[in-house]
Specification:
mainly alpha; two-stranded antiparallel ribbon; binds arginine
Length: 476
């Protein structure tokens, strides 16, 4: 039905400001206050979900006998036209109409006449907006999942191909023991695997329908909440109407997931930045993920990881913003909750962008295995292996620790790694040291010896990568 088809008597020719609630007001809202309280400039992002929710609600109203079938048809038809107009970018948003909900309702009434005004029967913007955000966030979690999976897959595949590449493992950023690069990468994957679990968990709890809670207490109409929940693919209706319109813990949970993920990606970023530096030279990032300097011609800067590291701050900020927004709010709905959207939207966008950037960049990393190996050789990284060797010869660990400490001090003095000393040099510190020591002092021997689940031996890394890939395949 177009506007010209509507009988003159049914046209709503006076869609003035505040038409939805202006009845008890004696003067129009102050122009600045209207702008200050409006959310349409940002909540229009919920438009498609708002329309989806309205169609489900209208179908339910028809079943309940509140709308006739022709009224339902007019409403659905009108809403679909509006959805197409919004998607096409030609919809005229009005700040005077406050928010996405009233803009769409006014446009509907404008198109189909007073029937449009019946849509809001048994409903409030309070349950409407709670429904919209849940639908929107559910869609977003569904599109973030494959981005995270792609990143994990890239990491695991790189780990499998770098299972034998030896690098220094660090504690306190000091060389500690040799590890394989593949092992290090699989540590990243474990962090992300847990983040994926947190995302799924968040989705599980948010997927309940608040529709029907109305303003706060429910409604006197014979509504069918199971029906609307099923129409919108929610698992079930929420239990309590006050809680339904009030809590935004699902958005907080998403931001907590997002913060944790960003924290993990910032740790990866920090390592990537270090590893690309001239001091480390462990990896190369392809030029397409870097930028240059306008003054220093030699520079190739790792901008992508630096930005991801930097963006962690804003996502953490959004989490704190939402926690603080919710803190101390009395039941049930308060206008404070209108402030939930911008932090949530930006957290979603930031996480999606960072995952996309990392997902493209990680598989393109080129490992510089010679530099890694050399670095591992320089830092006495097999000192623990020597101590363990002496324990094997019957020396108590505390004594062997002391013996090795002295050997390292000698090595520092002479500029020699333990593996570069002669047998006679090593025997100055213990007569228990024999020719077989050189095998355990080698970096290859050191990593190969840590051959158990979770250990750094190449064999274990290959098996762990296989298990991790198999786990990814169980995702749909
Ligand atoms: N724009 C509002 C929000 O985002 C919609 C709900 C308004 N409800 C109300 N009673 N004023 O929270």
């Amino acid at each position: 039905m177009s506007k010209s088809d509507i009988p003159e008597s049914e046209k709503d020719d006076n869609p003035t400001t505040n038409q939805s609630w202006g009845g008890r007001f004696n003067e129009p809202v102050d122009a600045f206050v209207a702008r200050f309280t409006a959310s349409v400039l940002f909540d229009q992002r919920l438009a498609q979900q708002d329309i989806q929710g309205s169609i489900a609600h209208a179908k339910m109203l028809e079943q309940a006998g509140v709308l006739s079938s022709s009224e339902l048809a007019a409403i659905c038809d009108g809403l679909q036209q509006i959805a197409a107009e919004i998607a096409g970018g030609s919809f005229d948003w009005s700040v005077a109409l406050e928010d996405v909900h009233m803009n769409i309702e006014a446009a509907l009434t404008d198109r189909i006449g007073v029937v449009g005004k019946k849509l809001h029967t048994g409903r409030s913007r309070n349950d409407q907006v709670a429904t919209d955000i849940r639908l929107w966030l559910r869609d977003q979690t569904d599109s973030i999942q494959p981005l995270l999976t792609k990143l994990q897959q890239g990491i695991i595949e790189l780990a499998a191909s770098e299972a034998e590449t030896i690098m220094p493992g660090f504690t306190h950023l000091q060389t500690a023991q040799p590890v394989t690069f593949g092992h290090h990468l699989l540590a990243w994957n474990e962090m992300l695997e847990r983040d994926f679990g947190r995302l799924l968990d968040c989705r599980k709890r948010l997927n309940q329908s608040p529709l029907g809670a109305a303003a706060l207490a429910g409604t006197t109409y014979p509504i069918n909440r199971e029906f609307t929940a099923a129409q919108l693919n929610f698992d079930k209706p929420t239990e309590n109407s006050l809680d339904s319109v009030s809590d935004r813990d699902f958005a907080i949970e998403f931001c907590a997931f997002a913060s944790m993920l960003m924290t993990h990606m910032s740790r990866m970023s920090e390592e990537l930045v270090l590893w690309t530096s001239a001091q480390f030279q462990f990896i190369d990032l392809p030029d397409r993920f870097c930028t240059g300097s306008s003054i220093m011609p030699q520079k190739k800067n790792p901008d992508v990881p630096e930005l991801v590291r930097g963006k962690t701050g804003r996502v953490n900020g959004h989490l704190i913003a939402l926690l603080t927004l919710m803190k101390s709010q009395p039941l049930a709905y308060n206008k404070d909750n209108q402030e939930d959207k911008e932090p949530l939207f930006d957290a979603v966008d930031t996480v999606a962008d960072c995952l996309r950037a990392f997902g493209d960049m990680i598989p393109a990393i080129r490992a510089n295995s010679e530099s890694m190996f050399e670095a591992a050789r320089r830092g006495f990284s097999t000192a623990t292996d020597l101590a363990d060797y002496l324990v094997g010869k019957g020396i108590p660990f505390r004594d062997s620790h002391e013996i090795v400490g002295k050997s390292v001090a000698y090595g520092v003095d002479q500029g020699k790694d333990l593996s570069e000393m002669s047998l006679a040099e090593l025997q100055q510190f213990s007569d228990q040291i024999e020719e077989d020591v050189f095998e355990i002092l080698s970096l290859e021997g050191s990593v190969a010896a840590r051959n158990h689940i979770g250990g750094t031996a190449p064999q274990q890394v290959r098996a762990a990568a296989q298990r991790a890939l198999a786990l990814l395949k169980t995702r749909n």
